[in-house]
Amino acid sequence: MSDDAPVARPTTRRLVVAVAVVALLAVAFAVGRFTAFGATAAPVTPSSTSADAGFARDMQVHHTQAVQMAMEIYRKTSDDELRTLSYDIATTQSGQRGEMFGWLVQWGVPQASSQPLMQWMASSGAHSHGDTSALSQDDLLSQMGMATDAELDQLRDLDGQPADCLFLDLMIRHHQGAIPMAEAVIELGSDSRVKEVAQAIITGQSAEIDAMRDIQTRLSCAG
Q: CA–CA separation, 95 vs 204, rounded Å?
C-alpha cells in the first residue's frame, strides 16, 4: 500500500486541478454569456431627434389626412368596393396613428418637433430628401404626397363618380408618399415595433394602391 501512495497523490492532484480549471472556465463562460445577454437585451429608447420619433410624428400628420379623405368618400360614395376600402383605410390608419402617439409618450419625447418634416430621413441612402430646412411647408407636404387644401375642398364639393375618381387619385398619391417614409425608418430606426408597423404600412398600402388602380379602371376614371 505504501508503494502505491506516491502514485495516487499526483493523479488525484491533477484531477483536482483539472476540475478547478473546468469550474473556472464555466464561471467565465457564464459571466460572458450573462454580460452579452444583458448588452443585447437592454432596450434602447429612441431620442427626440431619432428616425423613430421623426417617423412617428410625420406619419401621424400623414395618417390624419388619409383618415379625413377616407371618411369623406365613405360617407357619400355609392360604390360598395370603394366604401369597404375607404373604411379599411380609415380604421387601420386611425389605429396606427394612436399607436404612434403612444410611442412618443412612452419614449418621453415631445409630440411636435422644431425640425422640418422628413428631416429625419436626411441620412437615408435610398429615400433621402436631403436638408429640408430650406423648403416651404407646402413643398414638404407635396413631397409627402399630401393633398392641398384646394384638393380637399374639391373632394368635399364633388359627388358621384367625379368624387370617387378624385379620391382614388389623391389617395394613391398619398400612399406613394407614405411608403418611402416607412422604408426609411426601417433603414434608419432602432425600435423593433416601429419597424414592424412600417413594414405593415408598406405591405398594406402597396396592396391598396393596386386595388385603387383596379377601381379606377372599372369606374373609367380619367388619367
A: 14
35: which 3 cell numbers?
454580460
Contacts of 179 (CB under 8 A, 6+ apart): 201, 202, 205, 206
Is residue 114 classed as helix, strand or coil in its secondary structure? coil
The pTM for the full model equals 0.79
Element counts in the chain: helices (H) and strands (E): 7, 0
Q: What is the pLDDT of residues 130-145, one digit of tens each?
A: 677 778 899 999 999 9
Query: What mean pLDDT is predicted for residues 182-205?
Result: 97
pLDDT > 70 fraction of the chain, expressed in percent and rounded = 78
Cell triple for 140:
414638404
Helix, strand, coil percentages for the chain (3-state, nearest 5): 75, 0, 25
What 8-state DSSP symbol labels residue 47? P
Spatial contact of 70 and 89, defined as CB atoms under 8 Å apart: yes
- Grid-cell match 404612434, residue found: 100
Query: Rounded distance, CA 139 to CA 100, Å?
Result: 24
The rounded distance, in Å, linking the Cα atoms of 159 and 126 is 39
Tens digits of residue pLDDT in 95-152: 999 999 999 999 999 999 999 999 999 988 766 666 777 788 999 999 999 999 999 9
